[in-house]
Amino acid sequence: xxxxxxxxxxxxxxxxxxxxxxxxxxxxxxxxxxxxxxxxxxxxxxxxxxxxxxxxxxxxxxxxxxxxxxxxxxxxxxxxxxxxxxxxxxxxxxxxxxxxxxxxxxxxxxxxxxxx
Length: 116
Fold this sequence. Notes:
Radius of gyration: 19 Å
Strand content: 25-35%
Structural class: alpha+beta
CATH architecture of the largest domain: Roll
Number of domains: 2
Strand order of the largest sheet: 6-3-2-1-7
Distance between the termini: 34 Å
Helix content: 25-40%
Largest sheet: 5 strands, antiparallel
Number of strands: 7
Number of helices: 2
Order of helices and strands: HHEEEEEEE
Shape: elongated
Mean pLDDT: 93
């Protein structure tokens, strides 16, 4: 007896979407996925984050040009995390004396980041 893993199910499901087999259900699937994302974000706690975790800034961020930016958690505060961006933008870019750029530390609420 062959047992399917979660990865097997995911690949099979992805193939069905890609082939068009589930086209009539795409709206329902999208709504279910969006609801699950919201539920997961509401359940996140500060204890779920650790220094070194990779995070991505989500659409809840008020600074729209930062949405989708990835970074690393560099510190934990009471209710927020400190992060540096992989590719800093705007006011978060810092420059060393040799001209090399790097990310300033950015303090963000956990509601605007998703762990990857």
